[in-house]
UniProtKB/TrEMBL annotation, chain A:
Keywords: DNA-directed RNA polymerase, Nucleus, Transcription. InterPro entries: RBP11, RBP11-like, RBP11-like_dimer, RNA_pol_Rpb11_13-16kDa_CS, Rpo11-like. Coiled coil: none annotated. The keyword Transcription applies. Belongs to the archaeal Rpo11/eukaryotic RPB11/RPC19 RNA polymerase subunit family. PANTHER family: DNA-DIRECTED RNA POLYMERASE I,II,III, DNA-DIRECTED RNA POLYMERASE II SUBUNIT RPB11. This is DNA-directed RNA polymerase II subunit RPB11. It is found in: Nucleus.
TrEMBL record, chain B:
The gene is RPB36A. This is DNA-directed RNA polymerase II subunit RPB3-A. Signal peptide: none annotated. The keyword Acetylation applies. Pfam families: RNA_pol_A_bac, RNA_pol_L. It comes from Platanthera zijinensis. Keywords: Acetylation, DNA-directed RNA polymerase, Nucleus, Transcription. Belongs to the archaeal Rpo3/eukaryotic RPB3 RNA polymerase subunit family.
Length: 108, 317
């Protein structure tokens, strides 16, 4: 009776930002990105792609609670880069990988 | 920093392709990508399914909601789903979810007037959009066009009626995803396995008698190894049959021959099996999944306004 609506899992509520970032107060070049209405699908590919970046010292994600439909991606980089730069780079790289995958499939 | 890329360059090789079955190899990427594809095919590739049912008359033995539920589970041809609107985002009907951009209307009107039990099936659903019909109806009409085999086969049974009973209803089909309700999932099964790499220590293997070889080969619950009838050598016949059960490794140890075989899972090679409900062709499910992941990634890009360390970044430059 008090179960949340099913669409709550993937529809970002009005007035909420899809992505918000928060800089770490203690460590330089570290930040957390809160991504609303995403789960392991996006969290894990982002994390693994970030690990390929040599300037990324730490990249991890967590799904804080199964009924809180958001993930938190934490990134710590060297001074050669920044969390936002690494984050954007990871998305760009994944996007290109998917483009390549799509093109190689569409041949058939 | 411009031009730096840590992109992977995956390769795809197709093994088998049928309308509702697709087997392919995905290489030179990692498990996160393979798993994202699998998860998205199951839960986020959209299809069309009946979502709202208005019962006008129902004197069958099944209650209204039972019938509505059964109607929802009938797979509908969803080739147009990617381009369709979700009712919740549709501005043409303002949340009503019944306009031509975000819905397809069905009618069903069946009455039994004989002593024979009447099956109400997916065949009795009348669609207002010829491109969106039950998949079994579509495949039967295709089969009857091209030679007409088995066109008498019945459809998916919704309910059975006896004399005097009737079912009359209007149904609205909408675009949706498996995350919302499993009826919208185009996937019957989507699985991937790590390609196994099997190395037999030939030297050690030759210290085994034929009888020992047989009992070792038979210790595997799946048929991975066999004995060559001419040379009596143990060979790998089907590496992919190996289910990482480690039975052959334990057997070798029990026989006092540790290291007889070494088996690794290749961490960058995956063999996918995709089975579709028929709503979308299995091959198209993969293409759509790739497109959906791209859309998801695009949605999680940072907006210019919310980059906390932009100042720092310009300092570096
Ligand atoms: Zn609409």
């Amino acid at each position: 009776m008090n179960a949340p609506d099913r669409y709550e899992r993937f529809v970002v509520p009005e007035g909420t930002k899809k992505v918000s970032s928060e800089r770490d107060t203690k460590i330089v070049n570290a930040a957390s990105f809160t991504i609303e209405r995403e789960d392991h699908t996006v969290g894990n590919i982002l994390r693994m792609q970030l690990h390929r970046d040599p300037n990324v010292l730490f990249a991890g994600y967590k799904l804080p609670h199964p009924l809180q439909y958001k993930i938190i991606v934490r990134i710590h980089t060297t001074s050669q880069s920044s969390p936002t730069q690494a984050y954007t780079q990871a998305i760009d790289d994944l996007d290109r990988e998917l483009d390549l995958l799509k093109r190689s499939l569409e041949v058939f | 920093m411009e031009g730096v890329s840590y992109q992977r360059f995956p390769k795809i090789k197709i093994r088998e392709m049928k309308d509702d079955y697709f087997k392919f190899e995905l290489r030179e990427t990692d498990a996160s990508m393979a798993n994202a594809l699998r998860r998205v095919m199951i839960a986020e590739v959209p299809t069309i399914a009946i979502d709202l049912v208005e019962i006008e008359a129902n004197s069958s033995v099944l209650n209204d909601e039972f019938i509505a539920h059964r109607l929802g589970l009938i797979p509908l041809v969803s080739d147009d789903a990617m381009g369709m609107r979700f009712s919740r985002d549709c501005d043409a009907c303002d949340g009503d979810g019944q306009c031509e951009y975000c819905s397809v209307e069905f009618h069903l009107n069946v009455r039994c007037d004989s002593d024979q039990t009447l099956d109400v099936t997916s065949n009795d659903l009348r669609s207002t959009e010829p491109r969106v019909i039950p998949v079994d109806v579509a495949s039967r009409s295709l089969a009857s066009e091209s030679g007409g085999y088995d066109s008498q086969e019945r459809g998916i049974i919704i309910v059975k009626l006896r004399r005097g009973q009737e079912l009359r209803l209007r149904a609205i089909a909408r675009k949706g995803i498996g995350k919302d309700h499993a009826k919208w999932s185009p996937a019957a099964t989507v699985t991937f396995l790590y390609e196994p790499e099997i190395h037999i220590n030939e030297e050690l293997m030759e210290t085994l008698t034929l009888e020992e070889k047989r009992s070792w080969v038979e210790s595997s619950p799946t048929k991975v190894f066999d004995i060559d009838p001419d040379t009596y050598q143990v060979k790998v016949v089907d590496p992919e049959a190996y289910s990482y059960d480690e039975e052959v490794i334990k057997k070798a140890e029990a026989m006092g021959k540790p290291g007889l075989v070494e088996i690794y899972a290749k961490e960058d090679s995956f063999i996918f099996t995709v089975e579709s409900t028929g709503a979308i062709k299995a091959y198209q499910m993969v293409i759509n999944a790739i497109e959906i992941i791209k859309q998801k990634l695009d949605a999680v890009r940072l907006q210019d306004s919310e980059e906390p360390d932009m100042g720092e970044l310009t300092q570096h430059l």
